[in-house]
Write a structure and sequence with these properties.
Elements: H1 3-9, H2 16-60, E1 66-72, E2 78-80, E3 88-94, E4 100-110, E5 115-123, E6 128-136, H3 146-149, H4 151-154, E7 160-161, E8 176-178, E9 188-190, H5 196-219, H6 221-224
Parallel strand pairs: 8-9
Antiparallel strand pairs: 1-2, 1-3, 3-4, 4-5, 5-6, 6-7
Keywords: Cell inner membrane, Cell membrane, Electron transport, Flavoprotein, FMN, Membrane, Phosphoprotein, Translocase, Transmembrane, Transmembrane helix, Transport
Modified residues (FMN phosphoryl threonine): 196
Subcellular location: Cell inner membrane
Length: 228
């Protein structure tokens, strides 16, 4: 084949700028599709989260049929959780007549395999934690599950002391987890044999939640008393 025939059979090359333009268009369209999917699914995700939170509140506060969301602001005030409000969440739980029957608070601590996030019920009438529900954790199956289902362990949260000190700015006694079988005080949590780290995480989570929320709740209890 002579040189003239080779020239005639060569395919024309696509200019670099054309390839870049095509790739740029694909990237732009892909980004637009991702943004559209995100905007479409965001309300669905938010609604699913609302339902899961409501179920958790109703579990830790038996008899509750409605809840109100509050936040503890950066100034340490209890305020309604309106759109854009930031702070630690507190949930007022109410009966069918709109009466306050419990308050749900959340706490987190590092467990064996990562953070353990827990919701606790606080009863201002007894100044104590009266229930718990693990919201999420990566603890070892078979051991971590006991945090939520072991009846002996759950007894710790039937009347766990969370009284405030004389000045009302912290718990009178920090909530702690002790070795299984050695609990002697009402603010202690009897740990689970074989799941020491997970048990301690529950104690830390309960203490973190109560230390942050109980002083504010007790000071601003009137804001929670009736469902609006």
């Amino acid at each position: 084949m002579n040189l003239e025939a080779q020239i005639q059979t060569q395919q024309p090359r696509t200019p670099a700028w054309a390839m870049l333009r095509t790739l740029g268009s694909i990237a732009m369209i892909s980004g637009l599709l991702v943004a559209l999917v995100y905007q479409f699914t965001l309300p669905i995700i938010a609604e699913n989260q609302r339902v899961l939170t409501e179920k958790a509140v109703f579990r830790v506060v038996p008899g509750a049929v409605a809840k109100r969301d509050f936040v503890i602001t950066a100034d340490g005030e209890l305020a309604p959780a309106e759109e854009g409000a930031e702070g630690a969440l507190v949930y007022g739980a109410y009966d069918a007549d709109g009466g306050l029957i419990g308050i749900a608070i959340t706490g987190s601590a590092l467990g064996y395999a990562g953070p353990v996030n827990v919701m606790f019920a606080y009863d201002p009438e007894c100044d104590c934690i009266t229930g718990s529900k693990v919201l999420n954790s990566n603890e070892t199956p078979g051991f971590g599950d006991k945090l939520d289902f072991d009846p002996d362990f759950l007894e710790n949260f039937q009347a766990l002391d969370a009284r405030l000190n004389a000045t009302g700015d912290a718990l009178a006694n920090a909530i702690v987890t002790v070795k299984h079988g050695t609990k002697t005080r009402p603010w202690e949590i009897d740990g689970i044999s074989g799941a020491t780290i997970s048990s301690k995480a529950m104690g830390h989570a309960a203490n973190n939640a109560a230390q942050r929320a109980v002083p504010v709740i007790e000071r601003d209890l009137a804001a929670l008393t009736r469902q609006n």
